[in-house]
Design goal:
The protein is of the alpha+beta class. The protein has 9 helices and 10 strands. The protein has a domain of 72 residues: Arc Repressor Mutant, subunit A (Orthogonal Bundle), CATH 1.10.10.200. The chain has a 4-stranded antiparallel β-sheet. A 4-stranded antiparallel β-sheet has the order 5-6-4-7, sandwiched between helices. A two-stranded parallel ribbon has the order 8-10. The radius of gyration is 18 Å and the shape is globular.
Length: 252
């Protein structure tokens, strides 16, 4: 996961700029509405609870969250929204997964296809790359005040799949089965381990090394995809060494 983590951190840093334009709030709101299809009560719908926690962490106003929950409680929900996954390849043969939430699949498909085509990639058929990713839950734990051995014991007892250091950050990560994310989080917190963030991710089974040029172009493609209103998350299997990071850091 080493190279993928570095790539993911670049995406996160750049993605924060999106919130300033308001797009991030729209995406967080959609995440809550779609999660609410599984039930309007966050205490019995762990996906909704996680979506709300992420929205709060990203500073979505409490009034907005309350309004969304009232919609869900009133049965309005997100009947017009559907979740879609697009698959394709970026420069250098990098596998890319795009998760979207939309009320118009034709519009979204056209925008995603255009982003691929304009940035040296190509949209593929369903199943062309998804087989090489594993759906996982991911928790972020601040390293401050938590020892590695302590986290190992707590994560193992809680049923986690793996844990390690989130590269170039002050966090550990803990990976779980997707449906076990909330249970593992509860187990960690009951053991006194603070959890700062929880999310659903796609982890590549194998990574692809890319040239500096391809890496830069893949970042441009990722930014173009994330700039689409309907796109929620983008994952890839690019591999970046420390040397590659140093080479491209000033060029992105």
């Amino acid at each position: 996961m080493a190279g993928h983590s570095k790539w993911n951190n670049i995406r996160i840093k750049k993605g924060r700029m999106d919130a300033k334009r308001g797009k991030r709030f729209t995406k967080l709101s959609r995440e809550i509405l779609v999660a609410g299809k599984g039930g309007a009560d966050p205490e019995s719908n762990f996906r909704l609870k996680i979506a709300i926690a992420r929205a709060k962490k990203e500073n979505l106003p409490s009034a907005n969250i309350d309004r969304l929950l009232k919609k869900l409680a009133g049965g309005e929900g997100a009947d017009d929204l559907e979740e879609l996954t697009y698959e394709g390849y970026g420069p250098g043969g990098v596998a890319i997964l795009v998760e979207a939430t939309t009320d118009n699949r034709n519009r979204t498909a056209a925008e995603v296809r255009l982003a691929f085509n304009k940035n040296g990639g190509g949209l593929g058929e369903t199943g062309c790359v998804s087989w090489s990713f594993d759906q996982r839950g991911k928790l972020l734990i601040p390293r401050t005040g938590v020892g590695e051995d302590e986290l190992f014991v707590a994560a193992t007892e809680a049923g986690a799949l793996d844990f390690g250091e989130e590269e170039e950050t002050e966090y550990y990560f803990v990976l779980t089965e997707r449906h076990e994310l909330h249970a593992v989080r509860q187990g960690l917190e009951e053991s006194g381990i603070p959890v700062e963030d929880a999310m659903f991710v796609q982890i590549p089974q194998n990574t692809v090394e890319a040239s500096a040029e391809d890496a830069i172009n893949c970042l441009k493609l990722t930014e173009a995809l994330e700039d689409c209103d309907d796109v929620q998350q983008v994952f890839s299997n690019i591999e970046l060494s420390d040397e590659m990071m140093a080479e491209i850091e000033d060029k992105i």
